[in-house]
Structure formats: C-alpha cells, structure tokens
Amino acid sequence: MKILSKLFLIFALIILSGCSMTLPVQGVSDKSNEVFTGTATGYMSGKGDLKINTNTGLRCVGEFKYIDGFEKGVGGFSCSDGRQGDFTFTSTGVAGKGYALLNDGNKAQFLFGQVPNYSEVEWDHVQRVHETLSAQMKDSIFYCDEYPKTPKCSK
C-alpha cells in the first residue's frame, strides 16, 4: 500500500509540474539600440506573466492570455519609467513571435522560446501585423484595470 501511495504522490507531482511553462523572451525596440530579454510563463489556465529587462536598464512586467487555444494571445505591460503597452503574439505552444505598441508610440518585436536572428526589422510590417492581430482579439482585452495607459485601454 505504501508503494501505491508513493507512486500516486510522484504521479501527482509530475502532473502539477506540467501546469506552467517558462520560456525565454528576446526582442528589439524601434528605439535605437534598445534590446530586451526576459521570460514569459504560461499556465494551463491560458494566462501568463511577462518579465523583461532592457539593455538601457528599463524593467517591465505584464500579463497575457491565450486566445483560440494556445495559437495566439494578447496582453498588457507596465515599465519602470511609467510607460505601458499592449502586445499580441502567435504561438506554436513552445515558441512564437509577438508585437508590442507602447503608449509613447514606440514599437517592439519579440520572439519567445527561440533564439532570434534579427536582421533589419521592418517596423511598418510590425505595426500592420500587430494591428491585424489586435483587431482579431479586440473582444479579448482583459488588462485595462491593471494597465489603463496602454494604447488599447486609453482609447
């Protein structure tokens, strides 16, 4: 009987450990030479947390939720300098690409779960993709109480 109890406990711990996944995040801003790194942790509930730091000393935290299963999502964030922003992303479940717009007009592109190879980023393309994804997810905005200054929440 003790063996069954131990096996059940081990099985439960294995299942519970699978309730979240943390992936590396790396990105670039349209602000000259600003890059950022951090982590995104997604939970089985479909929600998640974001923590990033820039090479200029800025710290940002945010939250997101997946839409349409785990294929795309939307979120909001706040930075240590007071700026806030919205972001959208597409995901394969273990990697993806995202786009952000801050309330000062700056844009960012990021990758998670994979090592980026940033060449010349076409910021007009970044903005178009972000706008398209944002339009698809406009009824899924949930973070305006926490991040009221984001472009989507301040409209």
Main pleated sheet: 8 strands, antiparallel, barrel
Q: Helical stretch count?
A: 2
- Rounded average pLDDT: 83
Element order: H for helix, E for strand: HEEEEEEEEH
CATH topology: Porin
> Shape, please?
globular
- Alpha carbon gap, first and last residue: 62 Å
Give the strand line-up of the largest sheet: 1-2-3-4-5-6-7-8
Gyration radius (Cα, Å) is 17 Å
The overall number of domains is: 1
Portion in helices: 10-25%
By secondary-structure content and strand pairing, the structural class works out as alpha+beta
CATH architecture: Beta Barrel
Strand content: 35-45%
Plain-language structure description:
This protein is α+β, with helices and mostly antiparallel strands and 155 residues long. The chain has one domain (19-140): Porin (Beta Barrel). It is built from 2 helices and 8 strands, in the order αββββββββα. It has helices spanning 2-17, 123-136; strands at 20-29, 35-43, 47-54, 59-67, 72-79, 84-91, 96-102, 107-112. The protein has an 8-stranded antiparallel beta barrel. A hairpin with a 4-residue loop joins strand 4 (59-67) and strand 5. The longest helix is centred in the first third of the chain and has 16 residues, at 2-17.
Short description:
This protein is an alpha+beta fold and 155 residues long. 19% of the residues lie in helices and 42% in strands. The chain has a single domain, classed as Porin (Beta Barrel).
How do the helices and strands line up, and which of them pair or pack?
Elements: H1 2-17, E1 20-29, E2 35-43, E3 47-54, E4 59-67, E5 72-79, E6 84-91, E7 96-102, E8 107-112, H2 123-136
Antiparallel strand pairs: 1-2, 1-8, 2-3, 3-4, 4-5, 5-6, 6-7, 7-8
